[in-house]
Amino acid sequence: MKCLTPLLLLFFSLSTTFGQDINEPIIKKSIFFGGGSYYIDSEQLDELNEWIESIEEPELYEVLVHGHTDNIGSMEYNQWLSDMRTDAVIQRIKVNGIPDEFIFEKDFGEEQPVYDNRTWQGQRMNRRVDIVFKKLEM
């Protein structure tokens, strides 16, 4: 029984982390940004392109693009920055042949941090755009 415990914990972690049926195909990637920036560096751009190219039949997915910021600056500025980051990522996704009608954007600004904005590391991790490929229901 001891051997199964880590496997059960892994299964439980995966199912609770995604908050949905574990059998539902979902693919996620995050692009991280410097403070006050919406520039995607060449290393992340290469990773993004490779990641999208690795997805089999991308036309069978809807693409959710969620922009985030840390809490430095005004709420208005962070909302604008979130939008600019999301737009930069969407432009790169389109270059990879994903049509507009399958891309859905939501800019959260500083409103839904995943990491603790009271720390430098948390702020750094909140400066991101999450890209989620979610399988379309057929």
Distinctive features:
4 helices, 4 strands, disordered N terminus, globular, 138 residues, alpha+beta
Q: Please bin the fraction of helical residues.
A: 40-55%
Shape: globular
Radius of gyration: 17 Å
Low-confidence stretches: 1-22
**Main beta sheet:** 4 strands, mixed
Number of E-type strands: 4
Would you mind describing this structure in some detail?
With 138 residues, this protein is α+β, with helices and mostly antiparallel strands. The chain has one domain: 60s Ribosomal Protein L30, Chain: A (2-Layer Sandwich). Strands 1-4-2-3 form a 4-stranded mixed β-sheet. Strand 2, helix 3 and strand 3 form a beta-alpha-beta unit. The protein is globular and about 40 Å long. The N terminus is likely disordered.
Write the layout of secondary structure elements.
Layout: H1 4-18, E1 26-32, H2 42-54, E2 61-68, H3 75-95, E3 103-109, H4 120-126, E4 128-135
Parallel strand pairs: 2-3
Antiparallel strand pairs: 1-4, 2-4
Structure summary:
The chain is an alpha+beta fold and about 140 residues long. The protein has helices at about 5-20, 40-55, 75-95, 120-125; strands at about 25-30, 60-70, 105-110, 130-135.
